[in-house]
Amino acid sequence: MPETVALDIEHDAPIDTWFGIGGRADRLARPSSIEELGQCIALDANLKVFGEGANLLVADGGVRALVVSLAKMNAVSIGADGFVRAQAGADLMRLINGTVRAGLAGLHTLTGVPASIGGAIAMNAGGAFGNTFDHLREITTMDRAGVVRTEPASAFEATYRDGGLGGRIVVEAVFELEPEEPMVLRERVKDIMAQKKASQPMAADSAGCVFKNPTLAEDIEGVGKAGQRVSAGMLIDRAGCKGLAAGGARVSERHANFVVVDKATASAADVIELIEAVRQRVHGAFGVKLATEVVVWSER
Length: 300
Description:
Strand content: 15-25%
Oligomer: single chain
Structural class: alpha+beta
C-alpha cells in the first residue's frame, strides 16, 4: 500500500478571489494529486472547492468548512491529434494560448473568460462566442464519497451556466479540438478580446457577470417573447442600475451586469446588498427574477 502523505492544512487562510475582498478560511488545503484530494474529502465531505476564484464571493465572516484550492492540480497535455487533457486547476486562458500556438481551434471561443478548467466545467462557462461543453469530450470527477469516475461529457446534463455535476468535483478533462492555422486563431482571439475590452470593465476588480441571462416567462414589450433568453445586463441598465452603489461596491457604468469594487473600502456585505438591490429593481421594472451567476459562500 502506498504511504499516505499528510496534508498541509493552512489555518485562518485568505481565499483568493477576483473581487479581492471577503472572509477567510478556517482551514485551507492545496492538494497536488487525486490521492490528496481524496484525503481532503475524508477530512470533510462538505468541503468547498475553488480554482481561480473568478466567479466567487466569500462572506465577510469566512468559511467554517474545509476550503480546497485546486491550483496545484494544473497539468496540461496538448496532443497533435487534437485531444487536450487538462487537470481541474489549470488556468483556462493559459490553456487557450497553448492550443492557439499548437494550431488547435475550439477553446479560443472562451477567450476572456476568467476561470480554471474545473470551474469552467462546473458552470459551463462561456458567452456569445461559445461554451465550455462545446468541445468537451470526457470528464474525470470525484464524488463526496471519494469515488473517482471517468465519463463522457455527454453523460452530464449540462445547461446554461450549469455543468450538471451534481456536487461532484472535477479532477481532469479531455477536449477534442480541430486543426487551424495559428495565425488565424491569434486573430480570432484578438478580435474577441477587443470586443470584450470595449464593452466590459476588464481592468476593474470584479467577478465577471453577476447574473445569469434570464429566460422570459411571458412576453415583455420592448424586451422579448416568452421563452426567449435575454440579456441580464440590458434589463439592469433599463432598470436604471448603472452606477448604483452600496458601500465600496457599485454597478459598472460600462457593463451593467458587472459589479466592481474598491478593495480598500468594500466588503462582501456591500456586494451582497447591491446584488439584492439590483434584483429588486429589475423585478419591479420587468417582473423578472434574476438568478446569480456569481457563487456566494456563506459562513457554513
